[in-house]
Amino acid sequence: MNKPIGIILLIIGLLMFIYTGFTYTKKEKVVDAGPIEISADKQHTVNWPPYAGGVFVIAGIILLVTGKRKP
């Protein structure tokens, strides 16, 4: 059971090293006055520190190494 979780954590950690964040666009209302509605596209950025990827990689390696071996 530990090996699949370890592999997933390892992959997520490596991806977090490669991609340090992402940006998405959201449509938000600027003015809403009765029948008149004005909206604008606003970009939001989500970033995470590089050490977070390292934590995931280390946790994945630990789970892979300490996983129970079937006889």
From TrEMBL:
<feature type="transmembrane region" description="Helical">
    <location>
        <begin position="7"/>
        <end position="25"/>
    </location>
</feature>
<protein>
    <recommendedName>
        <fullName>LPXTG-motif cell wall-anchored protein</fullName>
    </recommendedName>
</protein>
<keyword id="KW-1133">Transmembrane helix</keyword>
<feature type="transmembrane region" description="Helical">
    <location>
        <begin position="48"/>
        <end position="66"/>
    </location>
</feature>
<keyword id="KW-0472">Membrane</keyword>
<keyword id="KW-0812">Transmembrane</keyword>
